[in-house]
Amino acid sequence: MQNEECRMQNAKSGEWQVMRIALKQHSVLPGFGVSLGYTMTYLSLVVLVPLAALFARSASAGWGRFWAAICDPRVVASYRLTFGAALLAALINAVFGLIIAWSLVRYRFPGRRILDALVDLPFALPTAVSGIALTAIYAQGGWLGRWLEPLGIKVAFTPLGVLVALTFIGLPFVVRTVQPALEDLEKEMEEAAASLGAGRWQTLRRVILPALFPALLTGFSLALARAIGEYGSVIFIAGNMPMKSEITSLLIITKLEQYDYAGAAAIAVVMLLASFGLLFGVNALQWWVNRRQRVGA
What's the chain's Rg over C-alpha atoms? Predict the structure, then answer.
C-alpha cells in the first residue's frame, strides 16, 4: 500500500512538473500578461486619456454653461442635420453598396477591375479634394448642377449637398465589408433553395440576406461612424449657412477659433456620447442577430 501511494505521489508530481515546463515554454508571441499590458497602455494613451481630458475640460465651465452651449438653437440645428444626414447616407450606402458588391463578385464584365478600383477612390482622395470636386460637379454651373437646377433640384450649398458628400465618403465601407462575405457565400445554397421550389425573391430574402446581414450591418455602422465625424468634404459643398446647412464639426472648429474651448468641448462631448450610443445600438443588434443565427443552426 505504501509503495502504491508513493507511485501515485510521484506520478502527480511528474504531471505538475510537465505542466510547469509547458507553461514556461517560450512562444514567438508575447504572453497574455505582456500583451494585455501593452494593449491597456496603448488604449489609455490614445483613447482613454484624451476622452477623459475632453470630459474634464467640458465640466470645468460648470453645468449652466455646458447646458447653454449644447442647447443653443444653432447647435441643435447642426445636431439634426449631422445625425440625420449621416443616418440617411449610411442607409443609402447599405442598399447600393450591397448591389455594387454583388455586381463585382457575381458577374464578369468589361471594366470590372476599373470599377472595383474606383470604389476605393474616396479612401485615397483627401477630404478637401472630395469636397471641391463635389462642389464643382453640383454647383449652379457644374456638370450636373446645370441640368438639375432647371428641374428645381439644388444640391450645392444645401442639406442635400451634405447628404451627397456623406454618401460619397461612406460607400467604400459597405462595399469592402460585404464583398468578402459574398465571396465566401456558396452558390450551392442558392441552387438548393431553387431546387426546393424557392423563387428568386424568396432565395434572396431567406438565404442570401440572412447570411450577409452581419457584414452589411458592420459596413453600415462604419459608414455611419465616418459620416458623423466627417468635416473636410462637407464644408465645401454645404455652404455652412447657420440653422440650415451647418454641421456640428464646423461649429466645434468655430468655437475653437473664438477661443471658447469649454463650449467646443461641450459640443464634442455630446457628439461623442451620441456616436457611442448609436454604435452601441448597432453592435447590440449585430450580437442579437448572430445569437439568433447560432440558435437557429
Answer: 27
* 122, 133 Cβ separation under 8 angstroms: no
Written as one letter, the residue type at 145 is G
Cell numbers 449644447 label which residue? 70
Compute the distance between CA of residue 155 and CA of residue 126 in angstroms, rounded to an integer: 21
Give the DSSP per-residue string, 33-44: HHHHHHHHHHHI
- For residue 200, the one-letter residue type is R
Model pLDDT for residues 107-120, shown as the tens digit of each residue? 888 988 999 999 99
Cell, residue 22:
509547458
Task: With beta carbons less than 8 A apart as the criterion, state whether 246 and 78 touch.
Answer: yes
Rounded Cα distance, 269 and 79, in Å: 12
- Read off the amino acid at residue 129: V
What is the pTM for the complete model shown? 0.81
Is residue 227 within 8 A of residue 90, CB to CB? The reply is: yes
Cell of 257: 477659433
